[in-house]
Write a structure and sequence with these properties.
Structural class: mainly alpha
Helix content: over 70%
Shape: globular
Largest sheet: none
Distance between the termini: 36 Å
Strand content: under 5%
Number of helices: 5
């Protein structure tokens, strides 16, 4: 397909793919879950998605700046660990409509900084002359993981229901956080 993936990116791929797969799974089905599982109305769901989009965008922006200060690895690991904790809370609690919707917003807010830091890490890992190709390669990898998410989620929901869906999604976030802590370089971009 026009070349290979830079070796420097292989660890980032191992870290980011579970997160992107879980993201693709969660955000495609979260609306159905909120209406069926929580009993949210369509207007409540729409308002929650608007709040979540704005808050997650701001969190991603701030997370990118934070990763410039403390390094990419801690931001990625903590971001996705917090997301996994939020998803586990959704799976294990019977939160009711308002707390459930607030936790969905929190899931988006907690994942944003990790996404920003993982995208910035590409420039830290690859020399400038190969960055354009590296970003293109990672975009393909990310898109493949995102595209696989809904089908994966559908299988999980069919086999294990909504609770299983949330548990598996939390496990993917925890896997991504653990992989970040173990595989990513400690010093990338801390200034």
């Amino acid at each position: 397909l026009g070349g290979g993936i830079d070796r420097e990116l292989l660890r980032l791929i191992a870290v980011a793919v579970p997160s992107r797969l879980g993201f693709g799974a969660f955000w495609v089905f979260v609306g159905v879950w909120a209406i069926r599982g929580l009993g949210a109305s369509p207007s409540q769901l729409g308002a929650m998605l608007l709040v979540q989009a704005v808050a997650a965008g701001a969190a991603g922006y701030l997370g990118g700046h934070l990763s410039d200060r403390v390094g990419r690895r801690p931001v990625i690991a903590w971001s996705w660990a917090l997301q996994a904790a939020v998803l586990a809370a959704l799976a294990l609690l019977d939160p009711g409509v308002w707390l459930g919707l607030a936790l969905v917003v929190a899931a988006g807010v907690t994942s944003g900084p990790g996404w920003a830091a993982s995208d910035a890490l590409i420039a830290d890992l690859v020399p400038e002359e190969r960055r354009e190709g590296a970003y293109a390669s990672m975009r393909v990898v990310y898109n493949l993981a995102l595209v696989c998410g809904p089908a994966f989620a559908g299988l999980v929901i069919a086999a294990a229901g909504w609770t299983g869906f949330l548990v598996v999604d939390a496990a993917l976030g925890a896997l991504a956080a653990a992989a970040a802590a173990l595989l990513l370089p400690a010093s990338a971009a801390a200034v």
